Fold:
Amino acid sequence: MEKIKQLQQDFADFLAKTDFNGQPKELYEPIAYTILQSGKRLRPMLCLLANEMFGGDEQEALWPALALETFHNFTLIHDDIMDKAPMRRGMPTVYQKWNADIAILSGDAMLAKAFQFALKPKQGAELAQQLSKVAIEICEGQQMDLNFETLGNVTIPEYLEMIRLKTAVLLATALQMGATAAGADETDIHHLYNFGINLGMSFQLQDDILDLYSDVKVFGKRHGGDIADNKKTYLYLKALELASERDRKRLQQLFTLRIDHDEEEKIEEVQSIYDRLHVKEAVEAVMLEYDRKAFEDLDAVSLTEEKKKHLRTYAEMLSGRKK
Amino acid sequence: MEKIKQLQQDFADFLAKTDFNGQPKELYEPIAYTILQSGKRLRPMLCLLANEMFGGDEQEALWPALALETFHNFTLIHDDIMDKAPMRRGMPTVYQKWNADIAILSGDAMLAKAFQFALKPKQGAELAQQLSKVAIEICEGQQMDLNFETLGNVTIPEYLEMIRLKTAVLLATALQMGATAAGADETDIHHLYNFGINLGMSFQLQDDILDLYSDVKVFGKRHGGDIADNKKTYLYLKALELASERDRKRLQQLFTLRIDHDEEEKIEEVQSIYDRLHVKEAVEAVMLEYDRKAFEDLDAVSLTEEKKKHLRTYAEMLSGRKK
Structure:
């Protein structure tokens, strides 16, 4: 845990040292506003831990870590325009606080900055190539997500492919970039990448569950927000699969209601159907299967257990095995 | 001229060979739709000509040329959202034909693709670094342009800085990337970059003039569109500088009229003030000064006249010295 805390602190210091100021201020203020908000720094941490595992130079790995965090925040700024999200992390989103034009442009500038950061280490060309690949995949995932809003029936494989592209590939790339900066060999990088994919899938399914079943009030997120927004998450798709004809029809009906409907009542009714069908348990089983596959790939990395321990501890915290 | 035509054809072939298809189609169709429209291919041409000048490998230079064209088209897609432009090159813009979300996302994917292309040659890291620098500058220029819309008074130096960032730096970078791919030395690249800056300034001022004083009907562009849109171009700012108190007030008044006003009448009145003040001639004088400075830097490049001749011919065509 000491190592994890130290890397978190190192990244926080590196980020604080980075100059996000510039002219015109309308372009740069939203960048600093977004990236300096407190966040989990999940992607930089995966990058730094993968790098540390292979004995890489932390000073080199801080650049791709910064690239990943900058890139991730660019996706948030643009996604919030498309999702018309008024709040994030308990603060007004950029397009809401400024306007959509500024949100588009400052997002674009962040994407360019992410490449600038990724190019700094001596493996810069390879790191930037990895970043451009994941950037395109994430655009594909976001477009699939947008398509799902208007699509009548989304299948479970389609949903899984969407979250793979929208969430999992970036966690996998974070590990890949950290290991690349450390000069790890291809087979190990490949295992680490797969570890990230399955960890990411599990992570997103957990997010879907927490949206409805979280005890704590998550700051800036509504309880059952996905249901209120008619989001076809894994919970919903699994429920459709498990439901009787009658429940299925009712669920489909509930998920066409507009926001002006009584939100609380709708969330309660959907949850009662989910509970009756044991949807939460079914999704948790899928999650555990992704976790199992993830750690199989971590096991396959050709390093001693001692070297893997920090990344393992961090990933176990993420996947909720330890608190 | 043969060489110029050959490079144009080579780029057209390279572009035609590039696969812009992918899934989901909502993301990829707008990309192919935009980049495969006929265009001047100005930036790829500057890149290829600079490369050819230094005896670089054309096959290597086609990658940064493609990166530049992809990048340029990304800026068009995002700018059209912000400018609410319904048409471009005589075709509906992406946000108009599809929607703003798709225009944001397919633009993002193009920016990522541009980096992927720039990274292909062996000097990939350097080329991508140059691309990321210019990408940030162009965001700054576009933000300045957006600011000018609501700003009461824009000064001529501010306007020049805006067009430097929004237009000139990309032409300069196109030359820089071509020369970099050819392994040219730093001093020569520096001269070529400055050549591009001044050429770009002249090019944009010419654009400002052509908007109002073009004889031919430019496809997809309205005569006097800048005046109708109250765009504070160099013509307008120069007119304010040269005008009597009375003309200045009238111009400022005319440039606050909304679109519902009689457009033709407004354009005519503004043009009659410009003509009385000889604004066109004043702007042409500034343009010529930029051209002069541009070619000074081309002269300073340490190559024989013979080697520079294709780029010189192309640039002279651009700056309107030959037809």
